[in-house]
């Protein structure tokens, strides 16, 4: 069997190594734009002496079709590729195009399923391998593997773990394709869910509505790909990258977002809804990434408030969001 890996994300590296070791990898294709997500993929391919192509969007379908035909590829494995695959290409390789998706479809269709799963606080997830059809993430399911989301892990940690867990699933797929034992299961179009591409407004902490657990989930979902959950301190936007639940005995009732304790030896503690508290461990500002301890040492005082960044304040931030497809 000959396989082309179509990917624009670093999560494709474990599968790249697996396919190369199995002697089935014809090459790797990605988008023409060099990003922090696909550059490591290119470097891994170069280190393994695997052909790596960058394709421009206007011509990528023609170029990819030619490469598939010239190489005799039997399968195109799609893993974190942001562009829609034209239906006309599906019939060129013998086994078509098969996509790797980080959810148990039909739940959490869309470009960044792990963000939404982490943000919602769910602990059950998994990996789906499905045929590519005319829409995103709607093709017949070939294989699935249930995986738990570990409480407290960030999106980056979760995606790295899922990428490794993908390797045995792809091995199983290749064996089943060779043996002719793959059983496709059509997705139920009436069930499941589809999530939009993450917008800047999805990253904002709403201190008046989000409970402490909601904020923890959002912070983990936004780290590292979205640079953290967004809030405002002293009129300046900051990004929160890590928080932990905390207790603050003897504290009077405070408005959510109020800093109730700030000390260089203890860190910064903030009030949330329903009398709960969080300790702010790591934030990112325009001046750098710093700890809560350093934030306290810089003079942040009890009584100051973190506030919600309102929609009108976002401006052009949304244009800078990473274009992720997993």
Automatic annotation (TrEMBL):
Ranges for domain Formyl transferase N-terminal: 59-163
Classification via SUPFAM superfamilies: FMT C-terminal domain-like, Formyltransferase
Residue intervals of the Formyl transferase C-terminal domain: 199-284
InterPro entries: Formyl_trans_C, Formyl_transf_N, Formyl_transf_N_sf, Formyl_transferase-like_C_sf
GO molecular function, one term: methionyl-tRNA formyltransferase activity
Cellular component GO terms, alphabetical: cytosol
Highest rank taxon of the organism: Bacteria
Pfam family, one: Formyl_trans_N
Stored PANTHER family: METHIONYL-TRNA FORMYLTRANSFERASE, METHIONYL-TRNA FORMYLTRANSFERASE, MITOCHONDRIAL
Designated name of the protein: Uncharacterized protein
Species of provenance: Pedobacter yulinensis
């Amino acid at each position: 069997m000959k396989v082309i890996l179509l990917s624009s994300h670093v999560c494709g590296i474990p599968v790249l190594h697996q396919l190369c070791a199995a002697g089935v990898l014809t090459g790797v294709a990605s988008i023409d734009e060099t990003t922090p997500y696909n550059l490591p993929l290119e470097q891994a391919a170069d280190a393994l002496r695997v052909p790596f192509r960058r394709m421009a969007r206007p011509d990528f379908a023609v170029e990819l079709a030619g490469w598939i035909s010239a190489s005799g590829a039997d399968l195109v494995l799609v893993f974190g590729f942001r562009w829609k695959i034209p239906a006309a290409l599906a019939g060129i390789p013998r086994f078509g195009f098969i996509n790797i998706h980080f959810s148990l479809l039909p739940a959490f269709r869309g470009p960044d399923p792990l963000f939404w799963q982490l943000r919602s606080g769910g602990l059950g997830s998994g990996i789906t391998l499905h045929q590519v059809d005319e829409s995103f993430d709607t093709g017949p399911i070939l294989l699935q593997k249930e995986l738990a989301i570990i409480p407290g892990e960030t999106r980056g940690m979760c995606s790295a773990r899922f990428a490794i867990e993908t390797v045995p699933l792809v091995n199983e797929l290749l064996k089943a394709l060779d043996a002719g034992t793959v059983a496709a299961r059509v997705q139920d179009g009436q069930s499941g869910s589809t999530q939009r591409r993450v917008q800047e407004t999805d990253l904002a902490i709403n201190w008046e509505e989000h409970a402490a657990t909601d904020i923890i989930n959002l912070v983990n979902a936004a780290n590292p790909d979205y640079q953290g959950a967004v809030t405002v301190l002293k009129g300046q936007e900051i990004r929160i990258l890590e928080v932990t639940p905390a207790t603050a005995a003897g504290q009077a009732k405070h408005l959510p977002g109020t800093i109730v304790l700030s000390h260089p030896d203890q860190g910064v503690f903030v009030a949330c809804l329903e009398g709960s508290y969080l300790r702010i461990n790591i934030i990112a500002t325009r001046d750098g990434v710093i700890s809560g301890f350093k934030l306290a040492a810089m003079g942040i005082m009890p009584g100051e408030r973190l506030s919600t960044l309102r929609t009108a304040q976002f401006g052009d931030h949304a244009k800078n969001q990473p274009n992720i497809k997993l």
